Amino acid sequence: MTIWKIFVGGGGDDWFSHIVKTYHAEYAKMNPGFACRYFSWTEGDAIRALLNGEAKGGHVALVGHSYGGDTAFWVLRDVPNVDLLVSIDPVGRFQRDWASIRADAAQWLNVRAEPGSANRSFDDTIAWAGRKYSRPPAAGQPNAPNYNIVADRTHGDFRGMMRDAAGGVSGRTLLGGHHVG
Amino acid sequence: MRPAESAAVPCWVAIMSAERPPLRPPPGAGRRRGAPRPLAIGIAIVVALVAAVAIWALVPRDLGAVTVERVDILAAGTPDGGTKPPALATPVRLAVTFSTAEDLAALRDRLGLGYVAARLADCRDDAAATQEVIAQRAGYLGDYRRVSRLGRNAAGHVRYRAVFDDELTATVDHAARRTPARTTPGGLCFSVHGASMWFGTASSTAVPLASLPG
Predict the structure, then answer these.
(1) Which chain A residues contact residue B112 at CB under 8 A?
(2) Residue A3, SS3?
């Protein structure tokens, strides 16, 4: 069975920051045994096509940051055969509700950035303006993610949020393979 | 026009003018001809602000000049002082010692950039590039401590040493030949590059590495 690791970058990831794009490139290089792909948040249809085609029957992990998290949520609605969903501070103009995401996600880790004044940056203002997802239901509540993390980090700190753990579990550990720094 | 008609019209106008009070201009008519409406001023201000933000966001900022002092090829197995995992690093690496007029961490902060990185690219194909983090606000990119600050030179410029993987030669059978980056077809250009998450890129001048060691 092919193991798929699919990364979805947020707004500007292609043009400016390359935050998720470089993470994917490093992860793919360190884990040649996995089938790794990177998509922009605008490529939901291409992700659906991959999941319905080449990746069908494989073990699929879907990681989305910012607008990419929202894209992952919407892809999941149409193609629910995703084994792991990692949403890193999702932002979306037309949001799905937590109950429907919970219903579609097998295993799900969500990280929400709530920076203190020391870590706050302009990234957070833009994320707020782009309509950031609220806190999901807390652990033990209905529709809560399996792992629910609130991070004192700025919105762009993708790598930091991949490292943040709840009970020893982080996006990085769930993703498996050799860890990217 | 018939003569009777031409004579009748002035008479009719005179009667109407006499019987009715003079028409008052509708409210706001004077403003329409003279000063623009407050709404129009508001729209103009918003448009100007949006344009200013767009220019601020999209026009690359200048990180100034970079001086390359020396370039070294690091043979396989040579320690480079960084923390990049062996699975991610290439055996042969290229060390570039360079200097800038301003401390780059301070410059990143001053320009509000998310990160600043040292960059090595094919001079004829800017997309073929590799980079190492100099300074960043948070975990935007992988920082493998491959750029070290060496202090200031006699001119007061800040000196750095950046170690790059030989990524660019991967397209020319790097795995088999272990060829150093100097064989990149377009020649190598060194620069400093910065960006924010959504907005704002910044670049220094690109310096062709003409005097690579043999």
Answers:
(1) 122
(2) strand
